[in-house]
């Protein structure tokens, strides 16, 4: 946030929903951005991909749908080919989802993320950790919609809403 203008500054695909309301960066908002980064790296895709008239493709939605079907590894970056460790890619994808939780208190701490990544602590099943479609849904009407609809995307057009589960989590473009 720019302290002189009180405008939220940052790339919307990485901004936590509470950051747009409170305008305060916290360790939890940093974790949200880290989750978007993890998903971007593991999938080889940006957090938000404009799809023209049909709205925007939200990476977190896509990864979540693959996880729900039990096919989370299928969303991995195709450039990996067969040269990857399945457990590691799965862990990164699941951590990306967990860090993208709409409830900041449900996100792990960075210490926990490091413990998961280093293999010191096993990551429980995501459903046991509270990751559900509703966990990726941000309650509209708390100021985020107004902010997002007026925020220009990188394509110099106003962002329009689609029916994506996590649209309010990751809105706008780079």
Give a quick summary of the entry:
With 174 residues, the protein is mainly α. The chain is 36% helix and 3% strand.
Key features?
single chain; about 170 residues; mainly alpha; Transferase(Phosphotransferase), domain 1; two-stranded antiparallel sheet; 6 helices; about 35% helix; globular; disordered C terminus; L-type_Lectin-RKs
CATH topology name, in short, is Transferase(Phosphotransferase), domain 1
- Broad shape: globular
Note the run of SSEs as H and E: HHEEHHHH
Strand tally:
2
CATH superfamily: Transferase(Phosphotransferase) domain 1
- The CATH architecture comes to Orthogonal Bundle
The portion of residues forming beta strands comes to under 5%
Which strand order does the major sheet show?
Answer: 1-2
Uncertain spans, ≥5 residues at pLDDT below 50?
A: 137-174
For this structure, what is the CATH class? Mainly Alpha
The residue fraction in helices comes out at: 25-40%
Mean of pLDDT? 75
Number of domains: 1
Number of helices: 6
**Structural class of the secondary elements?**
mainly alpha
Radius of gyration: 16 Å
How many angstroms does the end-to-end distance come to? Answer: 17 Å
The major beta sheet can be summarized as: 2 strands, antiparallel
Write the SSE topology.
Layout: H1 17-22, H2 27-43, E1 48-50, E2 56-58, H3 59-68, H4 86-99, H5 110-118, H6 144-150
Antiparallel strand pairs: 1-2
Describe the model:
With 174 residues, this protein is mainly alpha-helical. It has a single domain, classed as Transferase(Phosphotransferase) domain 1 (Transferase(Phosphotransferase), domain 1), CATH 1.10.510.10. The protein contains 6 helices and 2 strands. The chain has helices spanning 17-22, 27-43, 59-68, 86-99, 110-118, 144-150; strands spanning 48-50, 56-58. A hairpin with a 5-residue loop joins β1 and β2. α2 (27-43) runs antiparallel to α4 and α3 (59-68) packs across α4. The longest helix has 17 residues, at 27-43. It starts with 16 loop residues before the first helix and ends in a 24-residue tail after the last helix.
């Amino acid at each position: 946030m720019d302290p002189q203008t009180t405008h939220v500054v940052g790339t919307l695909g990485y901004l936590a929903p509470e950051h747009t309301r409170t305008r305060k960066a916290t360790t939890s908002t940093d974790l949200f951005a880290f989750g978007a980064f993890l998903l971007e790296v593991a999938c080889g895709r940006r957090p938000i991909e404009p799809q023209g008239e049909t709205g925007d493709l939200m990476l977190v939605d896509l990864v979540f749908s693959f996880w729900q079907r039990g096919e989370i590894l299928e969303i991995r970056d195709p450039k990996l080919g067969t040269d990857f460790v399945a457990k590691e890619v799965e862990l990164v994808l699941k951590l990306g989802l967990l860090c993208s939780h709409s409830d900041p208190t449900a996100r792990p701490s960075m210490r926990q993320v490091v413990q998961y990544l280093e293999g010191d602590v096993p990551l429980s099943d995501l459903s046991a950790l509270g990751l559900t479609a509703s966990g990726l849904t941000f309650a509209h009407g708390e100021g985020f919609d107004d902010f997002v609809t007026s925020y220009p995307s990188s394509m110099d057009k106003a962002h329009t809403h689609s029916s994506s589960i996590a649209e309010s989590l990751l809105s706008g473009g780079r």
